[in-house]
């Protein structure tokens, strides 16, 4: 039976995976058939290698495909042009011999270069490659995966320069019909990494490349199609469309995260003893448990995210402001921290604003930021001290959580000014809440409602769900509108009760907690 795969290349004969035919057709029509040179530049574990392999098979009837992986060329072989040319020629020959249209006669010019040690320059390499392209039966497509492996080497920049030279002169000299590179870094940033800070870094030889704009996230429909194949095999009785939507809500279609949640649901939860059977697992409760487990894992994707945020401090602080303060940051491709966040896949552009790419990333980053601050945070320590009193028969008393937070916040921070509270008020509540639900529940910030004045925190705790709206108080009329918005929002979550925590700077405010009704909804309103 097939299974969900999170380790390397996916194969539809072995693994459950989304149907890539529509994506492959668009790449062929918009890029390959139009002789484009381009890079599939996406974050870690985004399905780049799987897409390249599938694309190679998709194109074989019309083109000769040379598929290389720069991880097959060692670091020492990027030391200079001679060693690189020798290694590249060997890799090219190995890949070409898998192609039935390419026999040893066609490849003879490259074999000569390997055998003859007198001239192994990039100029000579491309002369030989041009000869092969001219004699080939079908147009040749060059695909190179893991171009990041070459990122610190000048010889690779020189290789790109030769590609550019032949591309611009392809009416006069034979060259590859199309070139497809794949990696995390775009070529501009490859050059950025090897240049001293004193040199300007944007004169890339890859300026001939077409911009690759296809969305590689999975859609709800694609996830549903994959789940339907699983359902056909296992007959779990799941609501395929609803489960696909819930998985998308957490992942925004990030390929690895989508497969990871499905893999946990399929392989781990039945043995946990918390679920009766697969019909109990493939539910919203099962997904919440799978997410909780995923967030505790030290996977490569999360490790890479932490590493890059340690390197790019401005990106780290930007994400903190987005998560803690609801800060709205306008998209600009000229801001380095934004460009880096988009390139790694940590951020995305939505309606002209920069947001964290998906809910899983938000939760993981919040956990990291809060844990870093826990040791020196009074809010966290108070939550740790109080946590046992909020639980009764495995149920969380959110009413009491708000009452105790109001008391704590008023005592410690009640005299601080508006600027201080706007910057830190919501962070203190999240720090206070973290130890109370830690290890048992999850919480995340609802991206659709987050802004400078409003943030909704969704708490999942052993099957219970709570919506806590955090607002900066802007007057009675604004407050009443917020109460109505919260009541409407509760309908979306099928809840009858919600929570409103308002940070009020009016000296005549009435600090405390009260309960109000809006239609058939109960709202517990806390004021600090």
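-> sequence recovered:
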């Amino acid at each position: 039976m097939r299974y969900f795969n999170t380790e390397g290349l996916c194969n539809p004969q072995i693994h459950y995976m989304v149907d890539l035919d529509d994506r492959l057709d668009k790449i062929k029509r918009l890029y390959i058939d139009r002789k484009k040179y381009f890079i599939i530049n996406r974050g870690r574990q985004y399905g780049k290698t799987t897409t390249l392999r599938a694309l190679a098979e998709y194109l074989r009837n019309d083109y000769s495909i040379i598929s290389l992986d720069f991880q097959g060329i060692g670091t020492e072989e990027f030391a200079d042009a001679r060693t690189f040319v020798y290694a590249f020629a060997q890799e090219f020959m190995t890949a070409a011999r898998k192609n039935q249209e390419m026999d040893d006669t066609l490849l003879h010019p490259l074999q000569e270069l390997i055998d003859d040690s007198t001239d192994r320059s990039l100029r000579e390499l491309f002369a030989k490659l041009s000869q092969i392209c001219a004699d080939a039966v079908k147009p040749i497509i060059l695909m190179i995966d893991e171009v990041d492996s070459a990122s610190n080497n000048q010889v690779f920049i020189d290789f790109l320069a030769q590609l550019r030279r032949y591309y611009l002169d392809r009416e006069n000299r034979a060259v590859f019909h199309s070139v497809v590179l794949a990696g995390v870094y775009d070529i501009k940033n490859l050059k950025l990494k090897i240049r001293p800070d004193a040199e300007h870094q944007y004169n890339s030889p890859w300026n001939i490349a077409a911009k690759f704009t296809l969305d590689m996230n999975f859609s709800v429909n694609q996830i549903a199609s994959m789940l339907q194949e699983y359902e056909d095999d296992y007959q779990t009785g799941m609501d395929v469309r609803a489960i696909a939507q819930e998985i998308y809500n957490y992942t925004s279609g990030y390929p690895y995260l989508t497969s990871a949640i499905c893999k946990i649901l399929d392989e781990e939860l039945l043995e946990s003893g918390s679920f009766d059977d697969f019909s109990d697992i493939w539910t919203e409760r099962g997904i919440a448990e799978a997410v909780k487990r995923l967030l505790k894992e030290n996977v490569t994707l999360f490790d890479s995210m932490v590493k890059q945020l340690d390197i790019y401090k401005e990106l780290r602080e930007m994400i903190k402001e987005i998560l803690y303060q609801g800060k709205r940051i306008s998209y600009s491709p000229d801001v380095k921290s934004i460009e880096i966040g988009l390139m790694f896949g940590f951020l995305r552009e939505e309606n002209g604003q920069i947001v964290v790419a998906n809910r899983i990333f938000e939760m993981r980053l919040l956990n990291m930021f809060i844990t870093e601050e826990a040791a020196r945070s009074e809010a966290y320590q108070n939550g740790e001290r109080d946590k046992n009193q909020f639980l009764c028969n495995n149920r969380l008393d959110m009413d009491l959580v708000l009452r105790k937070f109001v008391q704590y916040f008023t005592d410690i921070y009640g005299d601080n000014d508006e600027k201080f509270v706007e910057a830190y008020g919501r962070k203190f509540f999240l720090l206070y809440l973290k130890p109370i639900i830690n290890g048992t529940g999850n919480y995340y910030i609802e991206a659709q409602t987050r802004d400078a004045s409003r943030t909704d925190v969704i708490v999942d705790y052993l099957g219970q769900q709570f919506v806590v709206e955090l607002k900066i108080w802007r007057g009675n009329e604004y407050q009443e509108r917020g109460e109505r918005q919260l009541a409407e929002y509760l309908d979306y979550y099928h809840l009858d009760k919600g929570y409103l925590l308002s940070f009020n700077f009016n000296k005549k405010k009435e600090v405390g907690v009260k309960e109000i009704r809006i239609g058939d909804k109960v709202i517990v309103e806390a004021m600090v």
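Residues 418-437 form the longest helix (20 residues).
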